[in-house]
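in:
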């Protein structure tokens, strides 16, 4: 627009000044080695104006040509994006149907032209994994990492999820440790952490993230309590396997009273001690538990004990009968202890 205005002003100046200079035109001399070019000032101005007009015309033509090419490229790119969008919608339908082969095909046809190519490749990797094609799944993950640029978190989460599904537990554990450093409150990171820590026996690590899992409401309160008990019982198993009865007792004493007073954990601890043939400590835990609260789960463990000093148990059962009533379970357990006491006495007498 500015150039057209400039050209118009030059023409206007020529029209106004031309007649005024008609009698005083002067001349312009351009001299080279072989040529001398002479013209009037007015003629020179007209030639310059025409040259400028020619240059502007050429520029306009070239701009139209290149703009046409750009519009053509934009049109083709728009068609590809539209096609990729349609294929994404079709892939989601196939995903709902469970046709993972078609999901993978539709997502990868025009993935590079999709609105979010990374999403296409990640979903394709999940579909390939569902088909059991680990090689393709890993290739799609690598491609997703290439197009993701700085947004690598979805790629890393998907990679860990696929590694877990493939059974590559150690690789998944390494990946989830890195993810916990990057996004310690991310729901999917915590969900995967829970699964991986349980499968690898990393109970201490799982215990550390349980408060965060509870805060973000990944599980309800009952599920959190059940998960805690699973963790503590897993730790019992490890202590018993590695250190036997002594390790179990040290670990039990290291817990807070609040935890030791939980009946499910008391039951599990008694079972582990009985398996280790440590009936004395097992009996002590049962006695302490029943003194705090009556629970039939502890009563049911009494016949499994093989301790010789059963009088404390008999005394406690008689007290429970007075408080709870003569239930069949209490009566049968007390009778069992009485018979054992008589058998022990006969053994000593013999």
């Amino acid at each position: 627009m500015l150039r057209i205005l400039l050209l118009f002003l030059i023409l206007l100046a020529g029209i106004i000044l031309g007649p005024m200079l008609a009698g005083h035109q002067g001349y312009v001399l351009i001299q080279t080695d072989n040529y001398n070019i002479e013209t009037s000032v007015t003629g020179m101005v007209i030639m310059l104006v025409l040259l400028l007009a020619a240059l502007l015309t050429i520029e306009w033509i070239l701009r139209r040509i290149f703009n046409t090419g750009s519009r053509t490229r934009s049109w083709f790119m728009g068609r590809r994006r539209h096609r990729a969008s349609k294929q994404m919608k079709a892939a989601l339908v196939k995903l709902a149907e469970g046709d993972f082969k078609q999901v993978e095909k539709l997502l990868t046809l025009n993935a590079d032209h999709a609105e979010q190519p990374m999403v296409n490749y990640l979903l394709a990797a999940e579909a390939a994994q569902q088909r059991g094609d680990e090689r393709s799944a890993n290739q799609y993950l690598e491609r997703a990492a290439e197009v993701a640029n700085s947004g690598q978190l979805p790629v890393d989460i998907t990679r860990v999820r696929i590694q877990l599904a493939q059974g590559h537990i150690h690789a998944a554990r390494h990946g989830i440790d890195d993810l916990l450093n990057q996004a310690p409150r991310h729901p999917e990171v915590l969900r995967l952490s829970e699964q991986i820590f349980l499968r690898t026996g990393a109970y201490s690590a799982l215990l550390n993230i349980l408060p965060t899992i509870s805060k973000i409401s990944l599980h309800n309160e009952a599920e959190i309590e059940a998960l805690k008990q699973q963790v503590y019982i897993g730790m019992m198993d490890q202590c018993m396997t590695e250190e036997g009865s002594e390790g179990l007792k040290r670990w039990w004493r290291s817990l807070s009273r609040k935890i030791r007073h939980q009946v499910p954990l008391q039951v599990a601890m008694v079972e582990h001690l009985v398996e280790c043939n440590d009936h004395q400590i097992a009996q002590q835990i049962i006695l302490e538990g029943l003194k705090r609260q009556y629970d039939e789960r502890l009563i049911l463990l009494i016949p499994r004990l093989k301790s010789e000093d059963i009088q404390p148990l008999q005394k406690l059962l008689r007290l429970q009968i007075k408080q709870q009533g003569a239930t069949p379970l209490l009566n049968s357990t007390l009778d069992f202890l009485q018979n054992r006491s008589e058998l022990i006495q006969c053994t000593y007498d013999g």
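note: The CA atoms of residues 107 and 316 lie 69 Å apart.
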